[in-house]
């Protein structure tokens, strides 16, 4: 029998993406609410408790509320918001991260979907911390640019709705100058770093796609690792993964495009190094709505329901 799935927040940016990925699948039945009911707690509570698995594509407070409305102990949850990414009792839904991540996701009733900046950063840094190439105390920084769909409907309106009150002509803008970006807690916890990284994000005038960079001065690390040591650790960490790969060491590209993986569920890691200067630039490319949100949520759903990990994805 088909598994019953409810997407709470199905009319939002992430919800629509996920709906699109699931709607043609014959192994799933989507439970849906009429537009007039989609924000009514009683109607949501009914379908939240009827489903085998729910995906929350809501602002953080509404995601917490949705979890509180679930009384049926059989219902399984994938939360795409920031609300539960470091919460006890929740499994971090990054299937490729640790050798047993997929197994833990499969066994869990509560799975939090990683943030898009966090996905890129953790993918690059966690294997290096685990291999002791990067000491947990090391002061790591990261920068990058995301498409504006990363900010959901309100940011999409800022960039697209010419007649709206928040419209902007901006091409690239930095943000998070409070040094308190909402992904920092998960970035710290799930890499094993002792301190939050310094994150310098920006958003650009393109809909989807992102590029995140972690520059490292290898000469300052214990044991003076070479760029090839960093590459070897990352290649080993993601060997066999279908959605994450380390770009092969070929001719160094002149430029990289933040939109390179838009429309895909892939996460590609690049290692650019210079042996003489003892420096590397680690770069992750992904689609914020793919492996950065909807793609990862569908991957987690597949794993939790015992379906092939990449069903409906590649
Ligand atoms: N966009 C992205 O790239 C990513 C987003 N996420 C996370 O996914 C979640 C959704 O984000 P996103 O899709 O971008 O945001 P959107 O603003 O595009 O969508 C949120 C949806 O939730 C609906 N909603 C708000 N409050 C309630 C409520 N109380 N009950 C039911 N529905 C409600 C909104 O309704 P209405 O349409 O009326 O406004 C909207 O449709 C967020 O937590 C976000 O942080 C995670 C990774 C990446
Ligand atoms: C461009 C932009 O504003 N992006 C959002 C993150 C999008 C995202 O992935 O946030 P969650 O995963 O936490 O929902 C931001 O940096 O706040």
Automatic annotation (TrEMBL):
Pathway assigned in UniProt: Amino-acid biosynthesis; L-arginine biosynthesis; N(2)-acetyl-L-ornithine from L-glutamate: step 3/4
Family matches, as InterPro entries: AGPR (IPR050085), AGPR_dimerisation_dom (IPR058924), AGPR_type-2 (IPR010136), NAD(P)-bd_dom_sf (IPR036291), Semialdehyde_DH_NAD-bd (IPR000534)
Catalytic residues of the enzyme: 116
Enzyme Commission number(s): 1.2.1.38
Record's keyword terms, sorted: Amino-acid biosynthesis, Arginine biosynthesis, Cytoplasm, NADP, Oxidoreductase
Annotated SMART domains: Semialdhyde_dh (SM00859)
GO CC annotation: cytoplasm
Gene Ontology terms for molecular function: N-acetyl-gamma-glutamyl-phosphate reductase activity; NAD binding
Protein localization: Cytoplasm
Family per record: Belongs to the NAGSA dehydrogenase family. Type 2 subfamily.
Annotated protein name in UniProt: N-acetyl-gamma-glutamyl-phosphate reductase
Species the sequence originates in: Rhizomicrobium palustre
């Amino acid at each position: 029998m088909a598994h019953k799935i409810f997407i709470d927040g199905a009319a939002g940016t992430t919800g629509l993406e996920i709906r699109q990925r699931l709607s043609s699948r014959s192994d799933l039945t989507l439970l849906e609410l009429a537009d007039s009911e989609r924000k009514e707690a009683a109607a949501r509570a009914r379908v939240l408790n009827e489903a085998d698995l729910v995906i929350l594509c809501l602002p953080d407070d509404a995601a917490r509320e949705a979890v509180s409305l679930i009384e049926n102990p059989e219902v399984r949850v994938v939360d795409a918001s920031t609300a539960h990414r470091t919460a006890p009792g929740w499994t971090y839904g990054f299937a490729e991260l640790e050798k047993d991540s997929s197994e833990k996701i499969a066994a869990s009733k509560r799975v939090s979907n990683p943030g898009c900046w966090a996905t890129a950063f953790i993918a690059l840094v966690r294997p290096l911390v685990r291999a002791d190439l990067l000491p947990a105390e090391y002061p790591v920084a990261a920068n990058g640019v995301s498409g504006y769909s990363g900010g959901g409907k309100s940011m999409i309106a800022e960039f697209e709705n010419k007649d709206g009150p928040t419209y902007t002509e901006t091409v690239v803008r930095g943000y998070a100058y409070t040094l308190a970006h909402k992904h920092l807690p998960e970035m710290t916890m799930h890499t094993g770093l002792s301190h939050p990284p310094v994150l310098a994000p920006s958003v650009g005038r393109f809909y989807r796609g992102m590029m995140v960079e972690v520059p490292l001065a290898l000469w300052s690390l214990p044991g003076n690792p070479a760029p090839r040591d960093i590459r070897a650790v990352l290649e080993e960490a993601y060997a066999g993964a279908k959605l994450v790969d380390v770009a092969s060491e070929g001719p160094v590209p002149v430029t990289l495009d933040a939109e390179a993986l838009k429309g895909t569920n892939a996460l590609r890691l690049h290692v650019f190094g210079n042996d003489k200067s003892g420096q590397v630039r680690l770069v992750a490319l992904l689609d914020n709505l793919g492996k950065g949100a909807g793609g990862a949520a569908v991957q987690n759903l597949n794993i939790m329901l015992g379906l092939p990990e990449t069903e409906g994805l590649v």
